[in-house]
Amino acid sequence: MEGTKETIFDRLVYSCQFSKHRGSEEFMPEHLLGLQLSGETHAVYPGGTVVIPENSIVLIKRNQLIRWTKYPAKDGQYKFVSITLDQEVLQKYALENKIEVAGKYAGGQRLFFEADDFLKSYFSSLAPYVNKKKEATPRLADLKIREAIELLLQCNTDFKEILFDFSAPHKIDLEEYMKQNFMFNVPLESFATLTGRSLSGFKRDFSKIFNASPKQWLLQRRLEEAYYLIKYLKQKPTDFYLDLGFENRSHFYDAFKKKYGVTTTEVRQIEE
């Protein structure tokens, strides 16, 4: 049975799956607040890997790369509901409530946290919209976003530094960042934003550092990693080609043969 992903109103999304599903890499330009209703989500992000268990509430900071794999529960269902806390609403809220943030949040990426009863009840209040028993008007949708903001601040005052930091990503070490995140298959525009550059500036700096275009370097770096996994860790391409950023197996096999002149099977058979 096919899974579903529905946008209930413009910032509320409900996802339901009935089999293991590997999602594509995503660039998260806005904060996301979510509840794992059933099953669990395995999330890979630049800070590591985390498992989001059933009944966990997550807060994902904006400007993040993330990859999801969805695992249904024993009853065969995976359910996750999320609401986007976009910059426009947060800026209005900060202005109306005279909120100022002195510095950046120093706690790193925290994917999930211990929520209080009020925040748990908030997600219960979204059930009528998810179950299509009630339709959300634009005004009501805006109020639900604001309610989420209020409850997050009540749950943990440290969230103020996350929610109301409206600064753009600062210019960071491009070489180090790309070496750590080459496996994320996202548009170059996303890499540019996350490293604090315009697209043209990203391409220009990239060429100076790596003496190659981003497309050329990414392909070669992914193939080098694939060779290592096959030759020395004895892994099968079917187990990792997606995790290295290749969109399909035929593309991976063709690119590998072109670079190394041998097939992946022949690599495994080469004697040390």
Task: Write a short abstract of this structure.
By secondary structure, the protein is of the alpha+beta class. Helix content is 42%, strand content 22%. It holds the Pfam family ExsA_N.
Q: Number of helix segments?
A: 12
Report Rg: 21 Å
Report the portion of residues in β strands.
15-25%
- Return the CATH architecture of the largest domain: Sandwich
**How many domains comprise the coordinates?**
2
Using the alpha-carbon principal axes, give the shape.
globular
Structural class: alpha+beta
Order of helices and strands: EEEEEEEEEHEHHHHHHHHHHH
Keywords: DNA-binding, Transcription, Transcription regulation
Protein name: AraC family transcriptional regulator
Domain HTH araC/xylS-type: 172-270
GO molecular function: DNA-binding transcription factor activity; sequence-specific DNA binding
Write the layout of secondary structure elements.
Layout (H helix, E strand, L loop, with lengths): L3 E6 L2 E6 L3 E8 L2 E8 L1 E6 L2 E5 L4 E4 L3 E8 L6 E8 L1 H10 L15 E2 L3 H9 L1 H4 L7 H18 L3 H5 L10 H8 L6 H7 L4 H12 L3 H18 L5 H4 L8 H12 L3 H6 L3
Antiparallel strand pairs: 1-2, 2-9, 3-8, 4-7, 4-9, 5-6, 5-8, 7-10
Structure report:
A hairpin with a 2-residue loop joins strand 1 and strand 2. It is built from twelve helices and ten strands. The chain has helices at residues 87-96, 117-125, 127-130, 138-155, 159-163, 174-181, 188-194, 199-210, 214-231, 237-240, 249-260, 264-269; strands at residues 4-9, 12-17, 21-28, 31-38, 40-45, 48-52, 57-60, 64-71, 78-85, 112-113. The mean pLDDT is 89. The chain folds into two domains: 4-163, Jelly Rolls, CATH 2.60.120.810; 174-269, Orthogonal Bundle (Arc Repressor Mutant, subunit A). The termini are far apart.
